[in-house]
Amino acid sequence: MRRLMRARRKALTKEERERANAAICARLGIAADSSGASGPIAVYLASADEIDISDFIREALKRGVQVVAPRWNGETYELARLRGLAESDLRTGPMKIPEPAEAEIVHPSKVSTWIVPGLAFTKDGRRLGYGGGWYDRLLALSSGNSLKIGVAHEFQIADDLPHEPHDVRLDRIVTTA
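RE: above sequence
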């Protein structure tokens, strides 16, 4: 399943990616606004083939929302405040993914809304990640009241996925359609 989803994402044209990015960012804005949450928003900084939510992040920062993203501390991922998306605000992490340059750490229990990537999702909130368990470890520390949103292309929605007891279910999946 992981191999298939990676291949399908990689096969998207530049135009398909741009349309997907715009559609997801618009839907995320509506979902975040309707949640009524007032705490920090945890986001991901997209790798080459992931849906790029940079426009959503810029808009949240412009509105004064505290935005956090995963940052490697040498042993594990933690959440660090994201000041912006300029080169000076970011560094390249060990997985070649951008992450906050500064280490102003925010505990996952303080996050009100999570925006989570993945390779596949089910409609009931199960998520197939990349196999490292990093997001599940962060999400396990989240507040029970936080809203957890996955983002996906329509083709990333599966009828069924393997699920383990430590996997954290998402509350909502926002898709490109």
